[in-house]
Amino acid sequence: MIQVYLPIAEMSVDAFAIVALGGLVGFTSGLFGVGGGFLMTPLLIFLGIPPSVAVGSGTNQIIASSISGVIAHWRRGNVDVRMGTVLLSGGVVGSGLGVLVFNLLKAWGQIDLTIRLSYVVFLASVGGLMLVESVISLVKARGVSASAAAKPRGAENFAWATRLPLLMRFPKSGLYISALLPLAMGVLVGILVAIMGVGGGFIMVPAMIYLLGMPTQVVIGTSLFQIIFVTMSTTFMQATLNHNVDAVLTILLMVGGVLGAQWGARVGAKLGGRHLRILLALMVLVVCFGLVDELVTTPSEAFSMTMLR
Amino acid sequence: MARMGILISAACALMAAMGGPAQAARPVVADLSNHLVAITTGFSGTHVLVFGATDDRKGDIVMVVRGPMETHVVREKTRMAGIWMNRDEVQFPQSPAFYAVAATAPLDTVIPVDVRKRHQIGLNALVLPAIVGGGPPLSDVEAKRFRDALIRLKQKSGLYPEAVGTVTTLENRLFRAELDLPATVPVGSYTVEVFFIQDGAVIGAEITPLFVSKTGFSAEVFDFATHHAAKYAVAAILFAVIAGWGIALVFRR
After folding, report:
1. Is B76's CB within 8 Å of A3's CB?
2. Is B30 helix (H, G, I), strand (E, B) or coil?
3. Is B230 part of any domain?
4. Quick one: three-class SS letters along chain A?
5. In chain A, domain spans
6. How far apart are the C-alpha atoms of A198 and A189, rounded to whole Å?
7. Which residues does A306 contact at the CB level (< 8 Å), separation at least 6?
8. What's the domain count of chain B?
């Protein structure tokens, strides 16, 4: 046990526990190829870190993990910079709104509840969808494998997106759509980035595929690309407005995250994808259940206290 | 450590005794082993030794330690739509962030209630003025519920130690008490009051200051983050960028 004092959270923690947590989340992200921010915040809350500080410091850590993640995609040319720029413009605006809302909720004493509720909603839907989807694909794979391949998404599926103003060409993704759509997506995900301390990839990636119709190979790189900038501006606003970015906590998380991600990627290469996804879905649901449990069971202490400075 | 404390308190008593006639006006003298508690990166709580001497009258020693006065907000969760959420809130604008009492004997055998009230000795005598932001003023019952909650939460976090500490005496002249400060001890200026009590009346008192402050790395980080928030933010972002880039280079496959 090495006790380390977190200057912004104003508490002592076991450094090993935080590094291990970062490692676990890093391992998960390496194993499943997800960002892991959506596991980081709830796990930090379970460890007793104030939810507000967990969100702010988590955002800071995601800058590092998405930069190290984007580089490989960049080299392979899998980043649609134009689309990424539109998304991140929306994202910066959205996260700005999110940080302001965060500030208000903090003053009203409702920020902890909001963070927890947002997590419950998103973890439940993401975990549930993932579980259903992977179980179905597992069952299909057992049966006749000659299932009708997913229909290629023709542009006609997204015709409505071309009827809006501000049409823009995105050559890399082969799209000609209204910029308003990715802009709006950016704003919505940006709000989540600020309030939940996530990168938002787990919402952005499916939205890019199913709403914008982007080709799968550029989706992850582009998502990571825009996350870098959105988390940067969010970190800046959180640190200046809400003072909830704990540099010491961030560093501990990074150390664990780096080691965990490498290990996870190696293990992931050896395991099958479908089983992995079921595992991830179950993990997400377990974390979600833990949060629900905290919200609905009668607390042993109904009062809470904060000291104003 | 403990032995040194005894030595120090003995030396102090000796000095007090030698200064006899000149010091006759002071029935009790007290000091701390350390006036400055530094919260460093590895801080996990500490002890401060309070020691001193009294004149040769027989009596009891009561020590009251009070942390910085801060505004505390106490919120109560109520069940709404199946979910427990914060609803009512009460502010305690002038309440000590830390409060501890130690005595040579149980408080009720040493000091009558009115004296305890006057000097705010013991949690029951501690004055915690409450205000509600808007809405009707608090009823007495409600005020007591929130006051009890504040005390309970403070006790749970070790900042209002539940048990009255012990002050040990030696030869009826020297006394010492150990003050435990937990890892979560709030920063600020503290006061250590020592009361010399005989037949239920205070016959001497001494106040000594104690400072708790962050020093070293954690203090610098906190100051930087509070007073130069924009620079701190840029530094945190740059660090993350460099770290992320570095990680990618090191683990390049």
Report:
1. no
2. strand
3. no
4. CCEEEECCCCEEEEHHHHHHHHHHHHHHHHHHCCCCHHHHHHHHHHCCCCHHHHHHHHHHHHHHHHHHHHHHHHHCCCCCHHHHHHHHHHHHHHHHHHHHHHHHHHHHCCHHHHHHHHHHHHHHHHHHHHHHHHHHHHHHHHCCCCCCCCCCCCHHHHCHHHHCCCEEEEHHHCEEEECHHHHHHHHHHHHHHHHHCCCCHHHHHHHHHHHHCCCHHHHHHHHHHHHHHHHHHHHHHHHHHHCCCCHHHHHHHHHHHHHHHHHHHHHHHHCCHHHHHHHHHHHHHHHHHHHHHHHHCCCCCCEEEEEEC
5. 13-141+155-296
6. 9
7. A109, B72, B73, B75
8. 1
Q: Are A60 and A119 in contact (CB under 8 A)?
A: no
What is the overall mean pLDDT for chain B?
86
**What confidence score (pLDDT) does residue B135 get?**
64
Q: What is the model's pLDDT at position A154?
A: 46
Return the closest-CA partner of residue A227 out of A67, A56, A32, A29: A67
**How many degrees, rounded to 5, is the angle at CA A181 between CA A180 and CA A183?**
65
Please report residues of A whose CB lies closer than 8 A to that of B43: 3, 5, 12
Structural domain for B104, as ranges: 58-166+180-214
Cβ A285 vs Cβ A124: under 8 Å: yes
Distance of CA A78 to CAs A89, A149, A199, B140, B141, Å? Answer: 20, 24, 19, 67, 65
ipTM of the complex: 0.84
Contact A68 B72 (CB under 8 A): no
Q: Closest CB to A248: pick one of B43, B214, B221.
A: B221
- Mean pLDDT over B116-128 rounds to 91
Pairwise CB contact (< 8 Å): B85 & A243:
no
DSSP, collapsed to helix, strand or coil, labels residue B13 as helix
User: Is pTM, for the whole model, over 0.90?
Assistant: no
